[in-house]
Every structure is written in C-alpha cells, then in structure tokens.
Description:
The protein is of the alpha/beta class. Helix content is 53%, strand content 13%. The chain has one domain (3-177, 224-259): 3-Layer(aba) Sandwich (Rossmann fold). The chain has helices at 12-23, 39-44, 60-69, 94-122, 142-161, 180-183, 185-195, 198-203, 205-219, 225-237, 249-258, 262-272; strands at 3-6, 27-32, 50-54, 76-79, 125-129, 168-174, 244-247.
Amino acid sequence: MPTALVTGASRGIGRATVLHLATLGWEVAAAARDVADLESLVAEAPAGRVTAIALDVTDAAHLAALDAALPARVDALVNNAGIAIGGPIEALPLDELRRQLEVNVVGQVAVTQALIPRLRTSRGRIVFVSSISGRVSVPMTGAYNASKYALEALADALRLELRTWGIKVSLVEPGAIDTDIWRKVDETVDATVAALSDEHRALYARHLEGTRRTTKRVQDQTSPVDKVTAAIEKALTAPRPKARYLVGVDARVQAALGALPTPLADAAFGKATGTP
C-alpha cells in the first residue's frame, strides 16, 4: 500500500487530494498548520487511511519534527501548501513579499529536502501544485506569480537532479478551481484594497475595478477540483509522468496567450483583466 505526504491538506486542493488518494488505497499523511483543522478530513476518509500531522512549512520546529512523524517508507510527496498575496507591486509591503516567497517557495524546498532520503529509497514521486500563474503573469498578482515562477524553476532543476535515483518530479498547473479560495475571492480583494494607502487606492482605482470584474467572471468559470486530483493521480502513478499537467480550459487559454509575441500578449491580458 503506497504512502504519501500531502501538505496544505486542511482545505481546497489539498483536502480533495487526500480524500482521493485515500479512496484509491493510499495511506496519506495529511499535513496542515493546525491538526484541529484536519479532524473532519480524517473522519471523512476511509478508516485508518489518513493520519493528521501538524506542519507549518515555515516553522523550523515543525520541520524538525517531520521525520519522526512520518512512516519509514514514503512513496510520494504532494507539495500543495501555499498562499496568495495580491495587490500592485508598487504598494506591496516587503514583509508580505517575503512571506509570499517563504511559504510558496522556501517552505516547499524545506519539506522536499526532508523527504528526499525516503523518496530515494522508494524511488518515489514529487508533485508540486503550481499554477498557470507560474507560466503567465497578470496585473495585481505579481508576488504570487513570482512565487510560482520560482517553484517551476526549482521543480525543473529537481527533475534533472533526482533522475539519478529514479525520483520523478511533476508540476500540476491549475487555472481557477472551484474551492473556497475562489468562492471567497471577493473578500480577498476587499482585504487587498483596504490594506492600500489612500494614495495607492486612488492611483490604482481603475486597475482594482478591472480586478473585481475579472474575478467575478472567473468565479463563474471555475473547474471542479476533481480535475486537479485526477492530474495529481496521473503524476503519481503514470509509468512516464509528464513534467507538467495543465488543468482547466482557462489555464490552457492563458498558456496559449502567453506564448504570443509580448506586445500581443500584453494587450490580450490587459484587456482581459481590465487594466487601463
């Protein structure tokens, strides 16, 4: 029976992935910052298949305790934990940029480093839950884009470095997925706007109006989360897994637009996001 560690398991893609793998017969270590957030997940999963682990990927004590919390054999790591910080780069507090990179990039590397010895023994798999935002940047999400671009570069390097030991590394790149992150995106935009200074709120008023229109449109076009879990399953089980799995029509459209000459791509994304 294969064993996997899934980070960011308390909600959204992480939670769905844990349940999907457990239903397929995997034993899953579900990790989140607070194990209390995992109680309902453990109860919902097939009996005995899911174990809750406290893991804040930025917490040195949690990372140090990870080795003792895991079984001797681990066949797969699904790096899913992440956050998204929005707003214009001009107005982005540097501490918030550091937090964005610390969680989405440094934290992913820290967990991966901790798991590689087990994965080397099992000739296991690593899946990074990235985003189409790791291929294409759009206005008002620059910090998040930066973190996902970095994650993609690290995964590419790891894929080459770890092939010596038969460890396969894949990226899953969803577009907008029907999880609570997108269901509550209006609240997220409100919080982003509220955090701006009056000056920046005025300077970027039209950008923010475009962001609100875009998010409302995207909310109506989100893909079901099971499309992501199906891609993760393929990355973990296919004899020859792909380096990248795009998920969602919107992700494919954005990837195609991103491949256009830069002036055309800029015009297309500017229009799509309502950027003046």
